[in-house]
Design a protein that fits this description.
Arginase, Chain A, 8 helices, globular, alpha/beta, 274 residues, 8 strands, eight-stranded parallel sheet, Arginase family protein
């Protein structure tokens, strides 16, 4: 039911290299609002991308990240299910610690072409988004909290993985489910009926499926994503977070790529509406 769902739109900076995801997240939030029958709660506003190192990006984004964390905390305290349309993956630095505090039983299922398990000590790019999963796991101190347990961290679809990240996967910091014919079934076995919070970085999809900054071959199809969503919707869906969708020329309203993405996520959206 609409009154049981809170839709949060993180509209501001979050380590952006360009401005396109700030636009794309707005398109996604509007379409999700129509689907869910709720008005988005907008946090922050689009500002020119800084395209600089992680520390400067984090400092610039911190006020908006903290406001998004507060909005999520308010929703969870009220017993509402959060759905977030975020500009970039780095928003999870603020959201996942809140989620872990309220729902320490929930598994974070992180769909992403990248592991996002770098730390400030070993990142080679300085990209804030590459530190987005490691912060909530307590591998470095973002100042926004931690608390996500390794047993509750599942990475799906990662295929562009740096050596330090690979070592962390091999050390069972997270569980990796790879892209393949049996991805949905493998994911179901790993989650094993536990409650889930689903994070989707749109670059988990095959390049060109929807507009994204990073394009890593060997990704999921929309049907692959929908099958995974259907498996996860078989249990409790604690919340959904979608990021890294960029804008692109499209005459439709909403753009066709937004509609296609929402259709792939439909099993999860239906679940949070129950």
């Amino acid at each position: 039911m609409p009154d049981s769902v809170t839709l949060i739109h993180h509209a501001g900076r979050a380590g952006d290299y360009n401005d396109l995801a700030m636009v794309g997240s707005g398109q996604l939030a509007a379409a999700l609002g129509d689907r869910l029958g709720v008005r988005p709660e907008v946090v922050g506003w689009p500002e020119p991308a800084l395209s600089t190192g992680w520390a400067e990006e984090l400092a610039a984004a911190r006020p908006t990240l903290e406001a998004t964390a507060h909005a999520l905390d308010t929703a969870l305290v009220a017993g509402r299910t959060p759905v977030l349309a975020s500009s970039r993956c780095a928003v999870a630095l603020a959201t996942l610690p809140v989620l872990a505090r309220h729902r320490p039983d929930a598994v974070v299922v992180w769909f992403d072409a990248h592991a996002d398990l770098n730390t400030p000590d070993d990142t080679t790019t300085g990209y804030l988004g590459g530190l987005a999963f490691s912060g909530p796991l307590g591998l470095w101190d973002s100042g926004l909290g931690a608390g996500l347990a390794s047993r509750n961290a599942v990475l799906v679809g990662a295929r562009d993985v740096d050596p330090p990240e690979r070592a962390r996967i091999e050390d069972d910091i997270v569980t990796l489910v790879e892209v393949g014919p049996g991805t949905a079934e493998d994911l179901g076995r790993v989650v094993a009926g536990r409650p889930v919070f689903v994070h989707v970085d749109c670059d988990v999809l095959e390049p060109g499926t929807v507009p994204t900054d990073y394009r890593v071959p060997g990704g999921m199809t929309l049907e692959d994503l929908r099958r995974c969503a259907a498996v996860l919707a078989g249990g409790e869906v604690v919340g959904i977070e979608v990021g890294e969708l960029e804008s692109a020329p499209d005459d439709a309203d909403p753009p066709g790529y937004v509609t296609a993405l929402i259709e792939a996520l439909e099993p999860l959206l239906a679940a949070v509406m129950q």
